Amino acid sequence: MDIMKSIKETGIVPVVVLSxxxxxxxxxxxxxxxxxxxxxxxxxxxxxxxxIRRICMERPxxxxxxxxxxxxxxxxxxxxxxxxxxxxxxxxxxxxxxCIENDIPVFPGCMDTYAIEKAIAAxxxxxKFFPAEPAGGLAMLKALAGPYSDLFFxxxxxxxxxNLAEYTAFDxxxxxxxxxxxxxxxxxxxxxxxxxxxxxxxxxIVRAVRAGKHDEAGEGA
Length: 221
Hints:
Largest sheet: 4 strands, parallel
Distance between the termini: 32 Å
CATH class: Alpha Beta
Number of domains: 1
CATH architecture: Alpha-Beta Barrel
Oligomer: single chain
Number of strands: 8
Radius of gyration: 17 Å
Number of helices: 10
């Protein structure tokens, strides 16, 4: 499976923070039932690695990646647990190089031209724009995208249902990352029905935007 293609088709990458690995599979089911079959499970908690392992073992059809990866040792452990892609908060060169050398898709966090050019020099063509909203939002992202015509982005940070359509409409974005559909409080109280609803809503927004762009292209043909 082409992981980049799969992420682009989904259009949304939930950023998952779990305090209890027992919630991992129910959460994956709720996301999938809502139409999202991809997730970035972060290492922000001690449950992260085990959560990745459980989802990959019990729901192998879910495209599961690891986020908040900050060392090569963490990256190795996540890949051994089944993670299919790696996401870093910033431009972590050792982790980026490890992933490139081992043919593992990696999304390094970039919020300026210095980091972007480092990623491009390493051979990457897709980076994470983080933190998206605090760093200037879509206007900043478009400004950064201008000089780098063959670079694509996965913005994360401050994005939710209210601005998802705006980000999705920019054709240099392959997918939008966010945690609004799987917020910690929803997971902790076991409200997987709400997670499923929010996931379905997000999928609906992405599909509507993409359908509209397709219609516009057809009218102009």
